[in-house]
From TrEMBL:
Organism: Kluyveromyces lactis (strain ATCC 8585 / CBS 2359 / DSM 70799 / NBRC 1267 / NRRL Y-1140 / WM37)
GO CC annotation terms, alphabetical: fungal-type vacuole membrane
Any single biological process term in GO: autophagy
InterPro entries given in the database record: CNH_dom, Vam6/VPS39/TRAP1
Name of this chain's protein: KLLA0C12353p
Domain CNH, residue spans: 33-310
C-alpha cells in the first residue's frame, strides 16, 4: 500500500521477537495530543479516530508518503470518543459510531453526509452483506433493548426488522445471519433470531468484583473465539466455539485479559491489557495453542483488523530475490534479469489486514509470505508444502508463490524419495507447468539443451542436489528416461514449454546409450532433435552413417547428406543425385558435381558408370565441357570410353593415355611373367597348350595381364582411328613380342611382321602347337623347324613332330634330307611311327603306278584290236 520499494527499516520503537509477523511504519508522526481509538483504510486513505472525537484523514500522495489532509470533530458541541469506523465501500460511505450516535460519512473525503440523520442509542453494529441488485448493505444495529436489521444505501438507513433482544454488549452474526454469538450482560450466549431464544454459554467475568469487556471474534467461517477471565491483570482463556456453542479447539491461555483479539488464519493476536504488548498464538489441530511471538512497545498501542486489506511492499525485496528467474543453464543476460525483476515486482501483491496504531504512529503488522518462512529442506517440510500448494490461488501473486512452492515440492521429493522411479516422474509431470522437467534431467547429471531458468530462491538448492549424483537412486536410468518421454508425449504434447529442447535433452541421453550399444534408430527420436543428433553422430560418422543419412533425408538437408554419401558410398551418392536432381540446392555447383562424378568413377563398375551417364542425361550436362573440366585422367578416359571419343583431341588424349598406361603395365607384366615364360620354353611336352593360351592361364588373374590385354586392344583401335603410320608404341615396348602375342590375332601379327619373323618367335618359345599351325608345304620351312627341334636334343619332340606332320613330307628327296639330319643317336625304332606311314605311302604309290601301267597297256591293246577290226 504505502511501503517504498526500498524497504524501510523496522521501527526501533517496537520490540518484535523472531516469528512470522513483522512491523513496518506507515505514518511515524501523528499528533500526540490525541489518544487514538479506531482506524480504517480505504484506497489510498487512512481514517483515524480518537477518544476525544477528532477524525483525522490521511492521504497517500505517493508511495509511502501519507499527508494529513483533514481533521474534523465528530461532535462540534462536545468531545465524544470515536468507538468505531465501518466502511461501506460499494456505496462510497462510512458509518462512524461515537458514544451511541451513528452518523454516515462520505468517502473518500470523509465528510458527514448531509440530509441523512444520525441514529442514536447504538451500542454496536455488525455489517452483513451487500446486495448488488438494490445497491444496499444489510446491517445489524444493537441497542440496549433491541436488535435492528437495517438496509443502508447512499441516501438512507432503513429499518427492515426488529428483534426483541436486550442488553447485547458485543455480537457477531453467523454466516447465514440466523443467529448471533453475543455477550449479553456478563454471559456469552447463542441467540436464535427467528424465535429470539437466548442460550447462555460462559461468563465473561468469573467474578462479580470486576467487569471485563466481552470479546467475540470470528474464527474461520463458522466458529468464534470468546475470552473469559477473572481480572484484567490475570491470565484468561480464549475459547473457540462453533454455532452450537461447543468448544472445538484447545483453550488459548492469554497472559492477561486482552482489549482486542484478532484472528488471522490459524493465528490469534491478543492486545493485552495496558496496550503495550501484543501476544500471538498458533492454533493447531489436536495440539494446545502456543505463543509463537510477541510485539512490545513502551508506548501504548492498539491493533485492528481492517475491513479491506492493503498491499504492502514490506517484503518485496526478499520476494523479488526469491521469485525472479535466473539462469540455471543459460547465458547470463543482464537485461533479461532486469526484466525478470520488473515482472515479479509487478505481480507481487502481499495483502496486509492489520494495523498497529497509537501515539507511536501507524504501522502495518503483516504475516510473512509463506515462502519466506521456509527454513528447512527436511522431509518434514513436504506435508506442509503439500497442504499449501493444494489451496486455490486467487491472484497473480498467489499463483507465482504457489508455482515456486510446487517447484520446491518436487525438488524435495527428488531428494527424499528412496528411489527415483516412475512415481517421482509422475509427480514432476503433475507440476510440469511450473517445474521445467529439464531440471530433473539436470539433477540426474545429464546435459540439457536450451536456456533453463529457475526461481533464484531455488538456484543454490538445485545446484546442491546436482552435486549429490542423484542418478545413483535410479535402478534403471534408461527406463526412467524412456518412461518420461513417453508420458510427456501422452499427457502434455501440446502444452509442453520449449518442447523441442526438452525432447532434445531426452533424445541425446537415449542416443548416447544407443551409440554405446552400437545401434541407433532414427525413428526413436523427435524430428526437432535431428539437427543436434546429427552433430552427435557426426563424431562417429563411420559407425552411424546410415542413421545420419536417414536423418538428412527426413530433414531434407541436402548438403550434409551429400557430404556423408561422398565419404561413405559414392554409388549411393550418384543414385541420390539421380533421384533428387530437381531438388539440388543452388550451393551445389558444377565443380562439386564434377568432383562427385570423378570420385564415383574411380570405383569403376558398370552400374556406377550407367548411373553417371543417367545423371549426365538428367542434368542435361554439356558432355564436352564436363569432360574438359575433369582433371583426373582415369575418370576422363572412362567417360570418353563410355560416351565415345570422336574428336581428334579426345582420340589423341586417349592415345597418349593408353601409351603411358600400357608402358607401365607391360613393364610390370614382364617382371611378373619371366618365370612362367622360362617355364614354358623349357617344357618339352609336345602337346602343351599354345603359348598365348598358356599366358592367359598363368597370368590371366593378374591385373597387369588384364590391363595389358584391355589397354593394348584399345590402343590398337585408337591407332587405327588416328591412322598412325609410323609404327605402334607396342613395337617399341614389346621387344619380346609377349604383349603382341597376347593381344593380336596371329593372322594380323603375321601380316605385320611376316611369316619368317613370326615363325622364329614361336620357335623361340618352343610353342609346338602354334608352329604346327604355321607349317606350310614348304621344304625349307619344314627343314627349319626340324633343325630347331633337333637343336633341343629331345628325341620325343622331333619324333612327335615328324609323326604328326608326315603330310608335309611328300618328296623323297625331302625325306632323305630329313633322315640325313637325324643324328645316329636317335634309334630308327623311335622314328618308326614317322617312317612307316611314309614308306607305306611310297609302296602304295609304286603299286598304283603298275596298275595304271597295266590299265593303260590293256586300253592300248583294245584300241589296236578295234583298229585292226576296222581295217578288215
Amino acid at each position: 500500500m504505502n511501503d517504498d520499494t526500498k524497504e524501510k527499516p523496522i521501527s526501533t520503537a517496537f520490540e518484535v521477537t523472531d516469528g512470522l509477523y513483522a512491523v513496518s511504519p506507515l505514518i511515524e508522526n501523528v499528533p500526540h495530543e490525541y489518544e487514538y481509538s479506531c482506524i480504517e483504510y480505504y484506497g489510498q486513505h487512512i481514517y483515524l479516530g480518537s477518544t476525544s472525537g477528532a477524525l483525522l484523514h490521511y492521504y497517500e500522495l505517493d508511495v509511502g508518503n501519507f499527508t494529513l489532509i483533514s481533521e474534523v470533530n465528530f461532535n462540534e458541541d462536545r468531545p465524544t470518543g470515536i468507538d468505531g469506523i465501518t466502511l461501506l465501500p460499494k456505496i462510497d460511505r462510512a458509518l462512524v459510531l461515537s458514544e451511541g450516535r451513528l452518523k454516515m460519512f462520505l468517502l473518500p473525503e470523509f465528510a458527514p453526509a448531509s440530509n441523512i440523520p444520525s441514529i442514536m442509542n447504538i451500542t454496536e453494529l455488525s455489517l452483513l452483506e451487500f446486495c448488488e441488485k438494490t445497491q444496499c448493505y444489510s446491517c445489524f444495529l444493537y441497542t440496549k433493548n433491541l436488535v435492528k436489521r437495517v438496509s443502508i444505501t447512499s441516501k438512507e438507513i432503513k429499518v427492515e426488522q426488529k428483534y426483541n433482544i436486550k442488553r447485547i454488549r458485543k455480537a457477531i452474526p453467523s454466516k447465514d445471519a440466523k443467529l448471533l454469538m453475543a455477550a449479553v450482560d456478563n454471559s456469552y450466549s447463542i441467540i436464535h433470531l427467528e424465535n429470539e431464544l437466548v442460550t447462555p454459554l460462559f461468563k465473561v467475568s468469573e467474578t462479580d468484583d470486576e467487569e471485563l469487556s466481552p470479546i467475540v471474534t470470528n474464527f474461520g467461517k463458522s466458529e468464534y473465539i470468546v475470552t473469559c477471565g477473572i481480572s484484567n491483570d490475570q491470565n484468561c482463556m480464549g475459547l473457540i466455539l462453533n454455532d452450537d456453542g461447543e468448544i472445538t479447539h484447545g483453550t488459548v491461555v492469554i497472559e492477561n485479559y486482552p482489549l482486542t483479539v484478532i484472528v488471522d488464519n490459524l493465528y490469534v493476536l491478543s492486545e493485552l491489557h495496558g496496550s503495550k504488548c501484543l501476544q500471538i498464538h498458533l492454533i493447531k489441530e489436536n495440539n494446545d495453542p502456543v505463543v509463537i511471538q510477541n510485539v512490545r512497545n513502551q508506548t501504548p498501542f492498539h491493533i485492528t483488523k481492517l475491513q479491506t486489506p492493503f498491499i504492502t511492499r514490506q517484503f518485496n525485496k526478499e520476494l523479488i530475490e526469491k521469485l525472479r528467474y535466473v539462469p540455471l543453464i543459460a547465458e547470463e543476460l543482464q537485461f533479461r534479469e532486469e526484466q525478470e525483476k520488473a515482472y515479479v515486482a509487478r505481480q507481487i501483491a502481499v495483502e496486509c489486514h492489520m494495523i498497529i496504531y497509537g501515539k507511536c504512529g501507524i504501522y502495518s503488522l503483516c504475516r510473512k509470505p509463506f515462502l519466506l518462512t521456509i527454513s528447512s529442506y527436511g522431509e518434514d517440510t513436504l506435508p506442509i508444502l503439500k497442504s499449501f500448494i493444494t489451496e486455490e490461488s486467487q491472484s497473480n501473486y498467489q499463483l507465482l508463490q504457489k508455482s515456486y512452492l510446487q517447484f520446491l515440492y518436487v525438488l524435495l521429493l527428488t531428494l527424499h524419495m528412496e528411489h527415483i522411479d516412475k512415481d517421482l516422474i509422475d509427480a514432476w509431470l503433475k507440476y510440469i507447468d511450473v517445474a521445467d522437467i529439464r531440471v530433473l534431467i539436470y539433477l540426474l547429471g545429464f546435459d540439457i539443451y536450451g536456456d533453463l531458468w529457475i526461481p533464484n530462491g531455488l538456484l543454490a538448492f538445485s545446484k546442491k542436489l546436482h552435486s549429490l549424483k542423484l542418478v545413483h537412486k535410479c535402478n534403471d536410468v534408461l527406463n526412467i528416461i524412456q518412461y518420461l518421454k513417453f508420458q510427456l508425449k501422452e499427457t502434455c504434447s501440446d502444452s509442453l514449454k520449449d518442447s523441442a529442447n526438452v525432447y532434445l535433452s531426452l533424445d541425446l541421453i537415449l542416443l548416447r546409450d544407443n551409440i554405446a550399444k552400437g545401434s541407433s534408430n532414427v525413428d526413436e527420436y523427435e524430428a526437432t532433435s535431428y539437427q543436434e543428433i546429427a552433430k552427435e553422430l557426426s563424431k562417429h560418422k563411420k559407425e552411424h552413417s546410415e542413421t545420419l543419412i536417414a536423418i538428412y533425408e527426413k530433414t531434407k538437408e541436402v548438403t550434409p547428406l551429400l557430404e556423408i554419401l561422398r565419404q561413405t558410398d559414392q554409388k549411393r551418392l550418384i543414385n541420390y543425385l539421380n533421384t533428387h536432381f530437381q531438388e539440388l540446392p543452388d550451393t551445389y555447383s558444377k565443380e562439386m558435381l564434377t568432383d562427385d562424378i570423378s570420385s564415383a568413377l574411380k570405383d569403376y563398375n558398370d552400374d556406377t558408370v550407367s548411373d553417371v551417364l543417367q545423371l549426365i542425361n538428367n542434368l542435361n550436362l554439356d558432355v564436352k565441357r564436363l569432360i574438359s573440366s575433369i582433371e583426373d585422367p582415369d575418370t576422363k578416359v572412362l567417360l570418353l570410353e563410355k560416351l565415345g571419343a570422336s574428336s581428334t583431341q579426345d582420340l589423341t588424349f586417349l592415345y597418349e593415355y593408353y601409351k603411358a598406361k600400357l608402358t607401365v603395365l607391360n613393364s610390370k607384366l614382364i617382371e611378373s611373367s619371366n618365370l612362367p615364360i622360362t617355364e614354358y620354353i623349357t617344357n618339352m611336352t609336345y602337346n602343351k597348350s599354345p603359348f598365348k593360351e598358356y599366358l592367359k592361364n598363368k597370368l590371366g588373374e593378374k591385373k597387369e595381364y588384364e590391363g595389358c590385354f584391355d589397354v593394348g586392344t584399345k590402343l590398337l583401335k585408337i591407332e587405327k582411328a588416328l591412322n598412325i603410320k609410323e609404327g605402334s608404341i607396342i613395337d617399341d615396348i614389346d621387344a619380346s613380342f609377349v604383349l603382341r602375342i597376347m593381344i593380336t590375332d596371329i593372322s594380323v601379327l603375321k601380316e605385320k611382321i611376316g611369316f619368317e619373323k613370326l615363325l622364329d618367335i614361336y620357335l623361340s618359345r618352343n610353342d609346338f602347337a602354334t608352329v604346327e599351325s604355321l607349317l606350310q608345304a614348304n621344304d625349307k620351312v619344314v627343314l627349319k623347324v626340324i633343325d630347331h627341334y633337333l637343336s633341343l636334343n629331345n628325341t620325343r619332340v622331333i619324333s612327335q613332330f615328324l609323326n604328326k606332320n608326315t603330310c608335309c613330307i611328300n618328296d623323297s628327296g625331302l625325306l632323305i634330307e630329313i633322315l640325313e639330319k637325324i643324328p645316329p643317336t636317335i634309334q630308327i625304332s623311335v622314328l618308326s611311327g614317322f617312317l612307316f606311314p611314309l614308306l607305306r605311302r611310297k609302296d602304295e604309290s609304286t603299286y598304283n603306278l603298275q596298275i595304271k601301267k597295266g590299265i593303260l597297256r590293256h586300253r592300248t591293246q583294245n584300241i589296236n584290236n578295234i583298229e585292226r577290226c576296222l581295217e578288215l
